[in-house]
Every structure is written in C-alpha cells, then in structure tokens.
Amino acid sequence: MISTKGRYAIRFMMDLAEQPEEYPVPLENIALRQRISKKYLEAVVNLLVKAKLVKGTSGKGGGYRLVRKPSEYTVGEILKITEGTMATVACLEEDAEACSREKVCKTLPMWKKFDSMVHDFFYGITIDDLVNGNI
Fold it and tell me: What is the pTM (predicted TM-score) of this model?
C-alpha cells in the first residue's frame, strides 16, 4: 500500500510542475492548493530535497522548484524515496539476505513477476504524464 507520504510527494511534484519555472514556489502555497498540512508536507519535501529531486531556497521570495523537467521524473523514483522498498515480499527487498527456500519456492516466480510489473508501471509514468493526463 502506498502511504500518504508517497501520495503527497507525487502531488507536491505535480504542483511544482504546474507552476511557472522562473520563481520558487512557497511551500505554504502548495500546502493550501493541495489541502495538505504544511508541517506534514515539510517532512515529505525534506526527503525530496535530500534526494536532490527539488531545490529549496529560504528567505523572502523563497520556495521550491524542480531540478529537472517534469518529463524526467518518474513516479517510481519518487515512491522509492518516500516509501523505501516497493517489494511485495521480504525476500525481494534490495538488501534481503538469501532465502534458504529460494530453490524450492514455487511462489517466487509469481512474486518476481508481480514486482516487475509494479516497477515497470510506476517507472513508466512521469510527472509530466500525470500533469497532462497522459495515462
């Protein structure tokens, strides 16, 4: 299940993509438009800043802006930052220890296929696609 953190991060990125690029967008404005608590949104945005997906400037006229074009951000990369792993089962997480049942597990191919479908789905959608309704 995708948490509110992941959903809000996507909405935040879409909101930035819809604004003129020449000025940073104040967090308060985005929080109001998206009807998200500013305090909660700050925590989400901090993850995006740390991952260098957005750049923030403080002071008068400060705010946030995208680092890249909206077409260069995938939903998958945003969700990975906010959600961590998107693995369906523990044995498919990135740093998972080798499973002793891997060679005999008849469900593993199913989980691998499902994870691949989820990955391809989310990494195949950009912020630009969402903003323009291209899904």
Answer: 0.91
